[in-house]
Structure formats: structure tokens, C-alpha cells
Amino acid sequence: MPTNVYHSQSEKDEKDNSDHRGFELELLSDELLDAMQTGIIFADTDGIIRRINTPALEDLRITGNIVGKNVKDVLKVSNQDKNILPGLLDQLKEGSVNKVELPENTFIETYQKSAHLFVQGQLTRLSGKKSEIVFVFRNVVNEMIRDFMLKMALSSTKIFPWFYDMDRNVMVIDERYFAYTGIPTKDYTMTLEEFSGRLHPEDQPVMAHAFEQQLTGTHYPYPVSFRLLRGDGSWEWFEGQSTYLGQIDGVPYRVVGICMSTQAHKDIESALIAARNKAEQSDRLKSAFLANMSHEIRTPLNAIVGFSNLLTGGEVAVASEEAQTYVNLINTNCNQLLTLISDILDLSRIESETMEYSYSEFSLNSFLTEVYQVHTLTMPQDIDFGLLLPPKGICMVTDPIRLRQIMDNLLTNAEKFTSRGYIHLGYKISEDTKEVELFVEDTGRGIPSDQCDKIFERFYKVDSFVQGAGLGLSICKTIVEQMSGRILVSSRLEKGSRFSVWLPIKTSA
Ligand code: ADP
Prior knowledge:
six-stranded antiparallel beta sheet, binds adenosine-5'-diphosphate, alpha+beta
């Protein structure tokens, strides 16, 4: 019987295939198969092993000959606690697919328990060979460990790796970067334009220069600080650094880099700068304080001592009218000293943050009427002192003692700097009825416009010859701000000033 007689076309195919198979498999030399860095197992779709290369044997730590055995009896390919090998072989056998990739986190375990390794790989049906497959796998344990260690290390930092994809012209950035910054993304990439659009305008030139250098093959190893616009619209400080891997025709093969959030450092830096500035300011204040105080204390004290001596000296008789003048002067100077001492006490309470506030609800009309009445007693005759209250008064919650202190201070200043015209005390309610403006307006000497802010600083006086330590307004400002308000001044030289204290209207209801 001639050897090439077939009973059907399928019988012929089968014969062709098996002839062809033996031929092809033999054609592949051991050297070639072993030179591959991957494990390779040839088998039929039932799983019978035809050939296996040395890397596979070594990775699986198999010593004996396993050709002819069923791969399903030699090893398990597990994913999510299930042996997926029989299913994969069935798929290939049915012919529904020609190739199946091993899913992520797949590991191979031998029944001999000789090996247990994480792998990447695939099973492919050899073309033209319906019943033959090749199972290729790569041991990725070391890669996984490295990857895991890197991920673990990075996860506790705000460092985000990236690389520049020269083919697609995009930066491919660690997905944590997008989660952290809140920048929307579809595929964890950004074009240079998109990235640059998120940089603070002041930081764009240096970053553009760094990228230009790096992408054209001039090594730029220096860190670049930049502010990045986060997804929520806030700015955050980052530092970026990159390098490139290899060059082809002068063009870097790949630019890789990291960017790291430096916001926490910047915050610490600003806190330290603020602390240093505060310490320097305290030092300056101390010197200014000592310089001012010796003068401010001596002047009224000298007056008090001098006039008291005159009154009690007895050598020259003092007329009763003259005596009254001396007593008045002693009184005025005592008051000045008292004001000074209470300002110094307030200043030290502010510094040590021990100033106490006691909030209560009261009628603003009654409150200002009382302030007005007390100041009417000391107001010079030729000043038109007026109280301007809205017809429908309000009640509000704030600290009445501190508010009194502020209004007294503003009125005392107005009296001190106004020699004609009027001084008006009053309040107005804002249109949205959320705030109240308490004001003291005068037609006094006014304040130069470039000094309107400075008068709220400690020890600042427009005219150093005028009595006063220059502390009142700075204390007022601190108190008003503590009460969630603000103090403002508008003034015209030689025309007058208006001091406004804006406070939120809070009621106890
Ligand atoms: P002092 O207690 O010495 O008056 P303040 O802090 O209250 O200090 O005021 C600081 C400076 O602000 C004053 O020395 C004065 O130059 C200026 N100033 C305050 N109020 C008025 C005002 N109503 N008119 C003109 N200048 C004023």
C-alpha cells in the first residue's frame, strides 16, 4: 500500500501537520531556544509536552525529562486562586482564539513544589498547526519586587516619576500625580503645552529652557522649581529634575524625570521667615519702645513733679486761680501717664496673646450715647460735637468694653488733632445689613495720604512732637480684627479725617 494514501482531507491535513510539525520543531535548535530569555514549552492542545527549553526548566527547577508528560500534570498556572491552564488550553483547542495572554498577577507552581513564580506570558496556537501550541512565560518576580519596592517607597512621598514619549510627544506621568494634583486626565499623559499652561507665568521661561535643552540632547541636570496650578485652582510648589537615556542621532532616546512637591518645605520656610521677621520686629519694637518710653514717661512726670512742687513749695504764695491751673495740668499729665500705662499693658497682653474678650448683646444707640456724653465733658467749646445715630437703632453682640476703648481712642485723637469745625460720632448699617460702620469724623489737621496705613503701626506718629506714644491705633486695629472687623481711615490734609470701624452684626438670636 502506497504510504501517501489518505482516507479523507482531514486525514491528509493531519498527516501534513504531523510531518511538518516534526520537521519544524527539529529545525529549532536547542541553542536558539535556550538563548531566549524566556521559558518556552511546546505542547499539543491536550497539553502533551513536545519540547521545553532550558530557561523554562531552570525557572521551574525541573530536573528530569518531562517531554511526553502532560503540562497540566506538571504545573498549575494560577490566577485569583484558580488554575487557569486547563481552561486556556481548551480555548485554544476549540479554536475560538489563537492566542491568550496570561492575566496580571499570574503565577506558575509546579506539582513537585520545586518552583513558585510570578510570570507574564502567553499561549499561542502555532499557525497551520491546529493541535499545537507554544507556551511562553517570563519570570517577573524580580521586576515585581523592584516595582513593589519603588511603589512602596514612592507612595509615602510626593515624588512623581515621568518620562517623555518622543514618538507621541507627550509626558507620561505617574498616575498618582493626577490623583494628588486633581488635574483631570484620560491616559496619564500631558503635552508640553498642557504642562506649560499649568505653570505659573513667572516659572515658564526657566522650565521651557530646561525642556528645550533636555529634548535637544544638551544635558540639563539641574533642578527647576516651579508653581503648578492644581485641579482646584490653587498653586503648589514643585521641583522637577530630569535626565535622558541614550541618544540616537543627537536626539535623546527617552527623557525621564521626577517632579516632587516642595510645598511643605516652602510652608516651613515661610513660617521660619515669618518667625524671624517677628523676632526682628520685636527687637526693633523693644528699642523703639525704650526710646519712646523714656520720653513719654519723663515729660508728664516732670510736669507732675514740677507743678506739685510749685503748689507745695510754700516759698512763693500761689494765687488760687494759678493753683487751679497747676492742678489741672497735674491732672492732664496724670491722665496721660494713665493712658500710657494702660496702652503698655494692652500691648503686652496682645504680645502674650492674653487679651480677654467678653461678648454680650447691647443697644448700639445707648452705647454711643453714653460715649458721647462722657466726651462732651472734655470737648473744647468751639468744636461742634455731634452724635449721628440711625432712627432705628440696633442691638449687637460684641465686647462693649473693648469697643468703648476703641471709640474713646478715636475720639481722644480727634480732639487732639482738631482745633475748629466739628467732630461727629455715630454709626451706619451697611446696605446688606450684615455690617455696621462706627465712625468718628473730624475737620482736623488730617493725615498725609502716604501715611494713612502707617499710623496703624506701633509707635508711628505723623508728628513726633505731638504728645502720645503712637500706640493707640495699633491697639485698636488688633482689637477690631480680633472682633472679626476692620478699621479704616480716609483723610485729607488740613480738611479732616474719618475713622471707620466695620464690625459684623451678630445678635444672640
Ligand atoms: P497716639 O496714642 O500717640 O495718638 P495713635 O496710634 O492713636 O497714637 O495715633 C498715631 C498717629 O496717627 C498720631 O500720632 C497722629 O499722627 C495720627 N492721627 C491719629 N488720629 C488722627 C486724627 N484724628 N487726625 C489726624 N491725625 C491723626
